[in-house]
Amino acid sequence: MQMSRLSTKVGRLISIAGFAVFAGFPCVGQEAAGSEPKMLATGDFVSPDAPGVHVMTFLAEFEAGASIPLHHHGGASQVLLLEGDVDVTGADGTTVSFHPGDKMDEPAGWVHSGVVTSSEPAKLIWTIVLPDGAELETLDNG
Fold it and tell me: Which residues are the signal sequence here (predicted)?
């Protein structure tokens, strides 16, 4: 299967942007350990049948104890937790615990943070449907 030049170019930009966003997050546990979250794989899909959006998928691993600060995404996404335990807290203070096999649906713009609560790393698959021009992730102060 051959990709168009546009989707190839967009794919490279999205993959680079996705890594930079995860690596750029000041993950508290990660900083202390001197390492960044591991991006094990990235993928993206641009379809002529769905103009104006990118579907991106990331396989990521976060060290035990790592925390991700308050942030939101520019598109709706879904997370499937493969390994480890993670607590996700919304801006309203509500916390939900996720365990291997659990999935979480994130509406676009939902402000939340996360922390790996297990003694082992957390591995997850994150898929997002991102409209053209929308930010993948934005840090929120507060």
Answer: 1-23
Q: What is the CATH number of the domain that holds 77?
A: 2.60.120.10
Decide if 124 contacts 60 (C-beta within 8 A).
yes
DSSP 31: H
* pLDDT, tens digit, 9 for 90 and up, residues 113-137: 999 999 999 999 999 999 999 999 9
- pTM value is 0.75
Domain for residue 37, yes or no? yes
Tokens 């916390």 label which residue? 95
If one counts the domains in the chain, the total is 1
Q: Residue 48: CB partners within 8 Å, gap ≥ 6?
A: none
Query: 31-57 in b/e burial notation, b at 16+ Cβ within 10 A?
Result: eeeeebbebeebebbbeeeeeebbbbb
Structure tokens at 92: 């309203």
> What single letter denotes the amino acid at residue 103?
K
Cα(60)–Cα(42) distance, rounded to whole angstroms?
Answer: 9
